[in-house]
Specification:
The protein is mainly beta and 307 residues long. Helix content is 7%, strand content 50%.
Protein backbone atom coordinates (compact mmCIF):
# COMPACT_ATOMS: atom_id res chain seq x y z
CA UNK A 1 0.00 0.00 0.00
CA UNK A 2 1.44 3.38 -1.05
CA UNK A 3 0.92 6.51 1.02
CA UNK A 4 2.06 10.11 0.64
CA UNK A 5 2.65 13.08 2.92
CA UNK A 6 -0.37 15.38 3.23
CA UNK A 7 0.29 18.77 1.67
CA UNK A 8 3.47 20.50 2.74
CA UNK A 9 3.38 19.39 6.37
CA UNK A 10 6.67 19.27 8.23
CA UNK A 11 7.86 15.74 8.90
CA UNK A 12 9.23 15.43 12.42
CA UNK A 13 8.80 13.13 15.38
CA UNK A 14 6.84 9.91 15.45
CA UNK A 15 3.83 9.57 13.17
CA UNK A 16 1.10 6.92 12.99
CA UNK A 17 -1.16 5.87 10.13
CA UNK A 18 -3.46 3.01 9.11
CA UNK A 19 -3.51 0.57 6.20
CA UNK A 20 -6.39 -1.52 4.83
CA UNK A 21 -5.81 -5.01 3.37
CA UNK A 22 -7.83 -7.22 1.06
CA UNK A 23 -9.70 -10.06 2.65
CA UNK A 24 -7.54 -13.14 3.05
CA UNK A 25 -4.25 -11.44 2.20
CA UNK A 26 -2.79 -11.03 5.71
CA UNK A 27 -3.07 -13.04 8.90
CA UNK A 28 -2.57 -12.07 12.52
CA UNK A 29 1.04 -13.33 12.31
CA UNK A 30 1.97 -11.36 9.17
CA UNK A 31 4.92 -9.00 9.48
CA UNK A 32 5.10 -5.77 7.52
CA UNK A 33 7.92 -3.83 5.92
CA UNK A 34 8.25 -0.10 5.23
CA UNK A 35 10.16 1.29 2.22
CA UNK A 36 10.96 4.81 1.04
CA UNK A 37 10.80 5.94 -2.59
CA UNK A 38 14.41 4.87 -3.13
CA UNK A 39 13.62 1.35 -1.89
CA UNK A 40 15.45 1.70 1.43
CA UNK A 41 13.80 -0.07 4.37
CA UNK A 42 12.88 1.95 7.46
CA UNK A 43 12.09 0.83 10.97
CA UNK A 44 8.37 0.57 11.75
CA UNK A 45 6.11 -0.71 14.53
CA UNK A 46 2.86 -2.44 13.53
CA UNK A 47 -0.29 -3.74 15.20
CA UNK A 48 -3.61 -5.17 14.03
CA UNK A 49 -6.71 -3.03 14.62
CA UNK A 50 -9.50 -4.95 12.77
CA UNK A 51 -10.24 -8.33 11.18
CA UNK A 52 -12.41 -9.58 8.32
CA UNK A 53 -15.17 -12.11 9.17
CA UNK A 54 -12.91 -14.96 8.03
CA UNK A 55 -10.24 -13.96 10.57
CA UNK A 56 -7.83 -12.33 8.15
CA UNK A 57 -6.48 -8.84 8.85
CA UNK A 58 -8.53 -5.88 7.59
CA UNK A 59 -6.81 -2.87 9.20
CA UNK A 60 -3.36 -2.34 10.66
CA UNK A 61 -1.81 0.66 12.44
CA UNK A 62 1.84 1.60 11.97
CA UNK A 63 4.26 4.00 13.67
CA UNK A 64 7.60 5.29 12.37
CA UNK A 65 9.96 8.28 12.58
CA UNK A 66 8.52 10.84 10.15
CA UNK A 67 11.86 12.59 9.78
CA UNK A 68 13.32 9.50 8.08
CA UNK A 69 10.48 8.99 5.62
CA UNK A 70 10.27 10.21 2.02
CA UNK A 71 7.28 12.04 0.54
CA UNK A 72 5.87 8.73 -0.68
CA UNK A 73 6.22 5.48 1.28
CA UNK A 74 5.11 1.89 0.76
CA UNK A 75 3.89 -0.57 3.39
CA UNK A 76 3.70 -4.21 2.36
CA UNK A 77 3.61 -7.67 3.93
CA UNK A 78 7.15 -8.86 4.53
CA UNK A 79 6.67 -12.03 2.43
CA UNK A 80 9.98 -13.45 3.54
CA UNK A 81 11.69 -10.07 3.86
CA UNK A 82 12.70 -8.70 7.23
CA UNK A 83 11.90 -5.47 8.97
CA UNK A 84 14.82 -3.13 9.49
CA UNK A 85 16.30 -3.40 12.97
CA UNK A 86 17.94 -0.55 14.82
CA UNK A 87 20.67 -0.39 17.39
CA UNK A 88 18.30 1.17 19.93
CA UNK A 89 14.79 0.02 20.81
CA UNK A 90 12.24 0.85 23.46
CA UNK A 91 12.96 -1.32 26.49
CA UNK A 92 10.44 -2.14 29.23
CA UNK A 93 11.86 -3.50 32.49
CA UNK A 94 9.46 -5.01 35.04
CA UNK A 95 10.44 -4.58 38.71
CA UNK A 96 8.56 -5.11 41.94
CA UNK A 97 5.78 -2.53 42.12
CA UNK A 98 6.91 -0.53 39.10
CA UNK A 99 8.00 -0.46 35.46
CA UNK A 100 10.98 1.35 33.99
CA UNK A 101 10.62 2.29 30.33
CA UNK A 102 13.78 3.34 28.50
CA UNK A 103 13.49 4.85 25.03
CA UNK A 104 17.01 5.86 24.08
CA UNK A 105 17.89 8.93 26.12
CA UNK A 106 14.48 9.02 27.86
CA UNK A 107 13.67 6.94 30.96
CA UNK A 108 10.35 6.89 32.84
CA UNK A 109 9.56 5.23 36.18
CA UNK A 110 5.89 4.14 36.39
CA UNK A 111 4.38 2.70 39.61
CA UNK A 112 1.78 -0.07 39.37
CA UNK A 113 -0.79 1.85 41.40
CA UNK A 114 -1.25 4.93 43.55
CA UNK A 115 -1.76 8.62 42.89
CA UNK A 116 1.06 9.09 40.34
CA UNK A 117 1.08 8.29 36.63
CA UNK A 118 4.87 8.36 36.74
CA UNK A 119 7.35 9.20 39.48
CA UNK A 120 10.33 10.30 37.40
CA UNK A 121 10.99 11.31 33.81
CA UNK A 122 14.67 11.65 32.93
CA UNK A 123 16.40 12.77 29.75
CA UNK A 124 20.09 11.83 29.49
CA UNK A 125 20.04 11.08 33.21
CA UNK A 126 18.71 14.55 34.11
CA UNK A 127 15.38 14.86 35.91
CA UNK A 128 12.89 16.74 33.73
CA UNK A 129 9.58 16.00 35.50
CA UNK A 130 8.24 14.01 38.41
CA UNK A 131 5.12 13.05 40.35
CA UNK A 132 2.65 13.45 37.48
CA UNK A 133 -0.96 12.96 38.51
CA UNK A 134 -4.53 13.62 37.44
CA UNK A 135 -6.39 16.54 39.03
CA UNK A 136 -10.02 17.63 39.06
CA UNK A 137 -11.90 20.70 40.31
CA UNK A 138 -15.68 20.62 40.63
CA UNK A 139 -17.80 23.69 41.32
CA UNK A 140 -20.72 22.97 43.65
CA UNK A 141 -23.55 25.29 44.74
CA UNK A 142 -23.99 25.90 48.46
CA UNK A 143 -26.30 27.99 50.66
CA UNK A 144 -24.54 30.27 53.17
CA UNK A 145 -26.59 32.66 55.32
CA UNK A 146 -29.46 32.43 52.89
CA UNK A 147 -27.36 33.19 49.85
CA UNK A 148 -26.45 30.78 47.08
CA UNK A 149 -22.70 30.64 46.46
CA UNK A 150 -20.45 28.31 44.51
CA UNK A 151 -17.62 26.43 46.17
CA UNK A 152 -14.70 24.67 44.54
CA UNK A 153 -13.87 21.12 45.53
CA UNK A 154 -10.53 19.56 44.57
CA UNK A 155 -9.94 15.92 43.71
CA UNK A 156 -6.74 13.99 43.04
CA UNK A 157 -6.37 11.07 40.67
CA UNK A 158 -6.08 7.52 41.98
CA UNK A 159 -4.60 5.01 39.53
CA UNK A 160 -6.16 1.59 40.03
CA UNK A 161 -4.79 -0.30 37.04
CA UNK A 162 -1.77 0.10 34.74
CA UNK A 163 -1.57 -1.79 31.44
CA UNK A 164 1.20 -1.89 28.86
CA UNK A 165 -1.13 -1.53 25.89
CA UNK A 166 1.49 -1.42 23.13
CA UNK A 167 5.15 -2.41 23.18
CA UNK A 168 7.56 -2.39 20.27
CA UNK A 169 10.87 -1.10 18.95
CA UNK A 170 9.60 2.44 18.22
CA UNK A 171 7.23 3.37 21.04
CA UNK A 172 5.39 2.16 24.14
CA UNK A 173 1.80 3.02 25.10
CA UNK A 174 0.81 2.78 28.77
CA UNK A 175 -2.86 2.81 29.78
CA UNK A 176 -3.87 4.17 33.22
CA UNK A 177 -7.33 3.48 34.60
CA UNK A 178 -8.59 5.13 37.77
CA UNK A 179 -10.82 7.78 39.28
CA UNK A 180 -10.65 11.14 41.08
CA UNK A 181 -10.90 11.10 44.88
CA UNK A 182 -11.54 14.01 47.28
CA UNK A 183 -10.10 14.40 50.80
CA UNK A 184 -13.37 13.01 52.16
CA UNK A 185 -13.02 9.90 49.99
CA UNK A 186 -15.72 10.86 47.49
CA UNK A 187 -15.07 9.41 44.02
CA UNK A 188 -15.95 11.29 40.84
CA UNK A 189 -15.30 11.10 37.09
CA UNK A 190 -13.41 7.86 36.29
CA UNK A 191 -10.61 8.37 33.77
CA UNK A 192 -8.55 6.50 31.20
CA UNK A 193 -5.21 8.12 30.38
CA UNK A 194 -2.82 6.83 27.75
CA UNK A 195 0.82 7.89 27.80
CA UNK A 196 2.93 7.42 24.66
CA UNK A 197 6.73 7.30 24.86
CA UNK A 198 8.68 7.31 21.59
CA UNK A 199 12.23 6.23 20.88
CA UNK A 200 14.74 9.11 21.06
CA UNK A 201 11.88 11.59 21.51
CA UNK A 202 11.86 14.02 24.42
CA UNK A 203 8.13 14.58 23.85
CA UNK A 204 5.67 12.51 25.89
CA UNK A 205 2.10 12.45 24.55
CA UNK A 206 -1.07 11.96 26.61
CA UNK A 207 -4.62 11.09 25.58
CA UNK A 208 -6.93 11.95 28.47
CA UNK A 209 -10.45 10.43 28.54
CA UNK A 210 -12.87 10.89 31.44
CA UNK A 211 -16.39 9.62 32.10
CA UNK A 212 -18.82 12.11 33.63
CA UNK A 213 -20.78 10.36 36.39
CA UNK A 214 -21.67 13.40 38.51
CA UNK A 215 -24.94 15.19 39.19
CA UNK A 216 -25.51 17.52 36.24
CA UNK A 217 -27.49 19.90 38.47
CA UNK A 218 -24.76 20.11 41.10
CA UNK A 219 -21.33 18.95 39.90
CA UNK A 220 -20.09 21.60 37.47
CA UNK A 221 -16.74 20.94 35.85
CA UNK A 222 -14.33 23.77 36.71
CA UNK A 223 -11.03 22.15 35.75
CA UNK A 224 -9.53 18.80 34.80
CA UNK A 225 -6.10 17.75 33.61
CA UNK A 226 -2.65 16.63 34.67
CA UNK A 227 -0.24 18.17 37.16
CA UNK A 228 3.53 17.64 37.01
CA UNK A 229 6.37 18.74 39.22
CA UNK A 230 9.03 20.33 37.03
CA UNK A 231 12.41 21.34 38.48
CA UNK A 232 13.53 24.84 37.47
CA UNK A 233 17.12 25.64 38.39
CA UNK A 234 18.11 28.45 36.02
CA UNK A 235 17.88 32.15 36.77
CA UNK A 236 14.37 33.57 37.00
CA UNK A 237 14.65 35.33 33.64
CA UNK A 238 15.66 32.05 31.97
CA UNK A 239 12.65 29.98 33.04
CA UNK A 240 10.10 29.38 30.32
CA UNK A 241 6.75 27.66 29.96
CA UNK A 242 5.43 26.56 26.56
CA UNK A 243 1.92 25.25 25.95
CA UNK A 244 1.17 23.48 22.67
CA UNK A 245 -2.16 24.36 21.06
CA UNK A 246 -4.01 23.60 17.83
CA UNK A 247 -2.47 26.62 16.09
CA UNK A 248 1.03 26.78 17.51
CA UNK A 249 2.84 27.21 20.80
CA UNK A 250 1.92 29.68 23.53
CA UNK A 251 5.17 30.86 25.12
CA UNK A 252 5.38 32.74 28.39
CA UNK A 253 8.44 33.66 30.44
CA UNK A 254 8.44 33.92 34.21
CA UNK A 255 7.35 37.42 35.26
CA UNK A 256 9.73 39.44 37.41
CA UNK A 257 8.68 42.29 39.70
CA UNK A 258 10.64 45.05 37.94
CA UNK A 259 9.62 48.68 38.52
CA UNK A 260 10.54 51.98 36.89
CA UNK A 261 10.22 55.44 38.38
CA UNK A 262 10.96 58.71 36.56
CA UNK A 263 13.97 60.72 37.69
CA UNK A 264 13.04 63.79 39.72
CA UNK A 265 14.00 67.24 38.37
CA UNK A 266 17.51 68.41 39.35
CA UNK A 267 16.36 71.65 41.10
CA UNK A 268 14.08 69.59 43.28
CA UNK A 269 16.91 67.18 44.16
CA UNK A 270 19.33 70.03 44.98
CA UNK A 271 16.92 71.53 47.49
CA UNK A 272 16.37 68.11 49.00
CA UNK A 273 20.12 67.68 49.49
CA UNK A 274 20.31 71.14 51.11
CA UNK A 275 17.38 70.19 53.33
CA UNK A 276 15.38 73.11 52.02
CA UNK A 277 11.68 72.98 51.40
CA UNK A 278 11.41 72.22 47.69
CA UNK A 279 8.80 73.68 45.46
CA UNK A 280 5.93 71.38 44.72
CA UNK A 281 5.83 70.23 41.13
CA UNK A 282 2.79 68.83 39.47
CA UNK A 283 2.84 65.36 37.92
CA UNK A 284 2.77 66.96 34.46
CA UNK A 285 5.87 69.05 35.27
CA UNK A 286 7.77 66.03 36.58
CA UNK A 287 6.95 64.05 33.45
CA UNK A 288 7.96 67.04 31.30
CA UNK A 289 11.34 67.31 33.03
CA UNK A 290 11.82 63.58 32.62
CA UNK A 291 10.94 63.68 28.92
CA UNK A 292 13.32 66.60 28.30
CA UNK A 293 16.07 64.70 30.10
CA UNK A 294 15.51 61.68 27.91
CA UNK A 295 15.53 63.81 24.74
CA UNK A 296 18.81 65.49 25.70
CA UNK A 297 20.47 62.19 26.56
CA UNK A 298 21.16 63.17 30.16
CA UNK A 299 18.75 60.62 31.56
CA UNK A 300 18.86 56.86 30.93
CA UNK A 301 15.74 55.50 29.28
CA UNK A 302 15.34 52.55 31.63
CA UNK A 303 15.88 52.64 35.38
CA UNK A 304 14.79 50.44 38.24
CA UNK A 305 15.45 52.99 40.99
CA UNK A 306 15.44 56.74 41.55
CA UNK A 307 18.62 58.70 42.30
Amino acid sequence: MRLHNLGDRVKSGLTSWGCMWDQGRCSADTEYILRNEDGSAQRMQSRVTAFWPDGSVKWTAHTADAGKLSEVIEVAPADGGCQRKGELEVEVKRLEGQRIITAGSVAVVIPDEGKWLFERLEVNGELRAGHAGAVLILEEPANILGRTVRTEKEYEGLVERVTLEEEGPVRAVIKFEGTHVSEEGERKLPFVIRMMIGLESEKVDFVHTFLYDGDEERDFLKGIGLRLEVPMEDEMYNRHVEVQGDYGVFHETAAELLTWRPRLPEPYMQKMRLQEQPELYTAQQILRFTWLGMQSGSLPRCRDRAE
